[in-house]
Amino acid sequence: MNKTLLVCLLLVSYNSHSQIGEGQKFCEESKIGNYFPVTSYNFNKKIFWYKTFYYEVKKGTKIINGKTYTEFEQEWEDKRISLLYFREENGVIYQYNQDTKEESIRYSINFKEGDKWETADGKDHYKIISFTGELRTPYCIYKNLLVIEAKVSYGNFKFYYFRGHGYIGATKDDKLVSCVTPER
Predict the structure, then answer these.
(1) Which residue range forms the structural domain that includes residue 116?
(2) CA angle 34, 37, 173 (to 5 degrees)
(3) Span 60-97, pLDDT tens digits
């Protein structure tokens, strides 16, 4: 009896945490939205990164150099806070770098497989690998993913984005190093 009750509670708990937005399930592709939802993003994420994690929360907007950015806060397990600033204009997602005081392209709806670009300071390099990528995490087997190869200051990765959800994971040398979790 107690085991049955525990299993039922776990299933209810998992289902309530698995829903991202109204009617949207954690492992299911959204039929609306894009791979990099900035303005429509209205949910919080817990993201594992190697042996730690962070919570990512949309905080609101901030005007920088006359442009309106959506501010995202990443609170790491050790309580350290990182802030990210994104804006969307004509299907292009821009990220503002607080250190260099420059804006760089993060994604464009016009990108095709094989397209390459770099950050404004020339330090980070990106390439569209696929729009039909797959990623297996402990929680889901995702399909139809945007896969971006990233050669950044902290290593070379493949970042995975799911339509309507945004970032859902990363690999390094084909090993999973990051993923979203339905846990809160």
Answers:
(1) 2-181
(2) 80
(3) 999 999 999 999 999 999 999 999 999 999 999 999 99
